[in-house]
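Journal club prep, notes for RB
We'll compare a predicted complex against what the paper describes. Inputs for the adenosine-5'-triphosphate case:
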Amino acid sequence: MSNHSPRRHKHLPESFKDAISGFVFAFLQERNLHIQMFAAVVVIVFSLMIHVSLVELMIVFILIGGVISLELVNTAIERLVDLVTQEEHPMAKAAKDTAAAAVWWFSLISAIIYLFIVLDSLI
Ligand SMILES: Nc1ncnc2c1ncn2[C@@H]1O[C@H](COP(=O)(O)OP(=O)(O)OP(=O)(O)O)[C@@H](O)[C@H]1O
């Protein structure tokens, strides 16, 4: 078969099944994802308790979705690097550390935005 032949597109339910299986894999393997999911529940409950506005609640959901999505991409990059090499390599380190930095940056910015949302609701 030629490399240029069109790929068969999966049916939507198959794609969902694969995505859910990827999430379950990451959830079972990644402690960070447990912490992030727990933090997400705490943040949502707290936001409802202090009666943040609907728009602020939507922003909270976007931030949570961003952090969790980036953690999943980080997990994918870690596994891909491990598949390519189990040896110590500066490029493997660079790839993993950069992916981790993406999660770190988004989490930091999310925490700052959430602080403003809380202050706005409480003051
Ligand atoms: N093949 C490698 N070569 C060089 N350094 C590596 C390699 N694999 C991992 N490292 C270094 O060790 C760190 C931890 O890698 P590991 O694969 O254990 O991720 P992890 O501890 O599961 O990370 P996270 O906490 O983000 O899930 C990496 O961020 C990187 O600095």
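Talking point for the session: The chain has one domain: 34-122.
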